[in-house]
Amino acid sequence: QIINYEPRSTATQGHLGRGTLMESFLVTGAFRAYRNPRSSSSLTAADRQHIERDFLLNSAVRLARHGAEANQRIEHGKIAIYGGLLGGNWALAGEAVYGPNGWLALLDDGFSADGVAQEGGVYHAGQLGALAEAANELLANGVNLYNARFKRVFDASVAVSPVGISPYCADKFETAYRIWRDPLYLPTVHKYRERPSWTTVREGVIGLP
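Below the sequence we write its predicted structure tokens.
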């Protein structure tokens, strides 16, 4: 069940964009980009502290405490996971995964038993995409959230299509197939690969059947 039907407005409390939801969209790319120069000798210890404390954790903590619910919950929680990992705040990342409003809880109360988002439609795609982005970041840090419950969300994404090709988040099926090797996902992966993508290079399986 949805825990709170009256969350705080996402039109408030944001420091970037038009609110916290827009901030979560805007900072995702910046957080990812920081992974590359993070260990560069061109950054001093003071530089790193400034970036991680005043930008990454500043944003991550505010979004983690916002209280957003429904489909917006994972967009806020995803930033808490990124910020916690990059800023060295493991408690923040852990709460965003294992807490009562975290990644795992969303799988239980945000989707039906057969893996369809409770809000349906475009929000199924939105939640699946954000869940997978957070899961992939954690996977790169040794935490595997690709469990049976998450697999049902991918299965449902294929099941809604009359041709067996997910209309949602086709790029996320590269990792899903690599983890589970379920042939159910192959039509979606093949369709996605009709255009070259760095996602395929980074996450895909070579020599698909």
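The chain has a mean pLDDT of 85.
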